[in-house]
Specification:
alpha/beta; Rossmann fold; six-stranded parallel β-sheet; three-stranded parallel β-sheet; 9 strands; globular
């Protein structure tokens, strides 16, 4: 039997994280084979046995629409829980006050557990950003294509903490496979896949987010969606299945 681990605990309470991760490690000892999402998560659990294999995160293309970058259309898709997306809203406010003449839109899709959606809507209203930012709430994955077709900049905003650091972000991959240049916070896993041709690494602050948007605007005509899409080809699900999963399954037979 195979145990596959996609995430460790992301509780903000260190005691809860420790307890939950201990339970995950105990579970590992009960299985013939363990696959785990990254070297960092393997290291956190202290797993070193011969029956532990890295099965990395992957993604597929959601939108094959050819991207241009004359105007900036930002997109965030993901959970609102614990991600501090309000900092990106404040970052847009800073950007708009400093560069009112630059057109920009920002679509935010997702949901949380602590009334974040309502809080974000209220923040957008308080900052008078209704014409720039739209909070859509939860949208099914199968209905995301129009947003990936429309937008050209992905937002992979993850707090830079020890419990997010080693967690590969799904949407960073999905953005890039769809040709979206990605603004990503500097977690260990984001840094591994972001380069000058497909994205920019920032600190997890509103000011850094605003500065990245402006630098991106100045260099927008240098962006190329084919280059962005091709930068992560080894992380397509088909490649991961063929080169990572099948060898593990064949060994277990």
């Amino acid at each position: 039997m195979i145990l596959d681990i996609r995430t460790l605990s992301i509780s903000k309470d260190s005691n809860v994280r420790t307890a939950q991760n201990i339970q995950i490690k105990k579970a590992c000892s009960k299985f013939d084979i363990v696959t785990i999402i990254s070297e960092g998560t393997k290291r956190q659990l202290g797993l070193s046995s011969d029956n532990v294999y890295i099965l990395p995160l992957g993604a597929d293309c959601i939108s094959d629409t050819i991207k241009t970058y004359d105007n900036l259309h930002l997109l965030y898709v993901g959970t609102f829980a614990g991600r501090d997306i309000d900092k990106t809203i404040v970052g847009i406010d800073i950007f708009k006050r400093q560069h009112a003449d630059i057109p920009i839109t920002y679509d935010i899709i997702g949901s949380g557990f602590n009334n974040e959606e309502t809080q974000y809507r209220q923040l957008v209203e308080e900052l008078h950003l209704e014409d720039t930012i739209t909070i859509h709430g939860r949208i099914a994955h199968t209905a995301l294509k129009p947003f990936f077709d429309k937008c050209n900049i992905g937002v992979s905003f993850i707090p830079i903490t020890e419990y997010y650091d080693d967690q590969p972000p799904t949407k960073t991959f999905e953005y890039m496979f769809s040709g979206l240049f990605t603004i990503a916070t500097g977690t260990i896993e984001n840094v591994k896949i972001i380069n000058n041709s497909n994205g920019v690494i920032i600190q997890d602050t509103p000011e850094a987010f605003s500065e990245a948007i402006y630098k991106l605007y100045l260099n927008r005509f240098e962006l190329n969606d084919k280059t962005i899409r091709s930068s992560l080809q080894k992380f397509t699900w088909s490649n991961i299945i063929e080169n990572k999963l099948k060898p593990v399954l064949n060994q277990s037979i």
